[in-house]
Amino acid sequence: MSRNRSLLLLLVYGMVATLAIFYGLVERQSLFVTFVAFHLLVCLGIPLLHGWREGKLAAHWRAAWGVYDTRGARFGLILGLIQMVGVMSGIWLLLRTEGRAEEIRAILQNWGLHGGWLGLFALYLIIVNSLLEELMWRGFVLQRLQQVMSRPAAIMLSSLFFSLYHFIIVSVLFNPLWGVFLTALVFGAGVLWAWMKSMFPSVYPTWFSHMLVDVGIAASVVWWIYR
Questions:
Q1: Cβ-proximal residues to 38 (8 Å cutoff; 6+ apart), any chain
Q2: pLDDT per residue over 15-66, tens digit each?
């Protein structure tokens, strides 16, 4: 596959991810549809289909996981704890506005997140979402972007794709102005995790860090929005 064709295909993949979130949350207003469209079809389906077409699926899969590294895992856990505290502090401050928690709860309930599903939603967000996003953006996309452009450019572009669909989520839950600010923070986290990927090639350091960020989000939803 030519360099330009590979880059164009990766750009399409990045935009498809945002379209999947838009379709699930804005058009269908369903978390279930969103999870199927984004996690199953995009984060899992695209890398598997692409690797199968290349005839190197097993090799790419092993490369995406890498070898467990204790030093990298420890780095990811420490960074994740710091990020988790920051995320929870930020959400707590955002929810200080009177009525905002109730507004967000109403939106989430409209998307299908009712009290009985909170535990399952939290586990899914923490384990499945964090893992599939890392395999997709810091594994599949970043790895291939580095084959057609410089590493700094690949880090910036993969982080841009990672942050774009978060703009839809936070804009609906809060407002577009907060959406821009929070998406910029997500972009920064993406750059940090992509940089970590160059230091620790396996999925575990960034996954552990990402997982703890999602722990902070899930805990905030359970404690402060559905309390």
A1: 17, 20, 21, 24, 165
A2: 999 999 999 999 999 999 999 999 999 999 999 998 888 877 777 778 778 8
Nearby residues of 47 by Cβ (< 8 Å), 6 or more positions away: 60, 64, 135, 136, 139, 140
Q: How many CA atoms lie within 13 A of 110 on its CB side?
A: 14
Query: What is residue 175's three-state secondary structure?
Result: coil
Give residues with Cβ within 8 angstroms of 85, minimum separation 6.
Answer: 216
Q: What kind and span of H or E run contains 197?
A: helix 176-199
The model's pLDDT over 79-110, given as tens digits with 9 standing for 90+, comes to: 999 999 999 999 999 999 999 999 999 999 99
CA distances to 96, 110, 224 from 89, in Å: 11, 26, 12
At residue 41's C-alpha, the angle toward residues 116 and 203, to 5°, is 85
Answer for the pair 126, 216: CB distance below 8 angstroms, yes or no. no
Residue 215's alpha-carbon distances to 2, 208, 210, in angstroms, are: 41, 10, 9
Cα–Cα distance for residue pair 222/227, rounded to 1 Å? 6
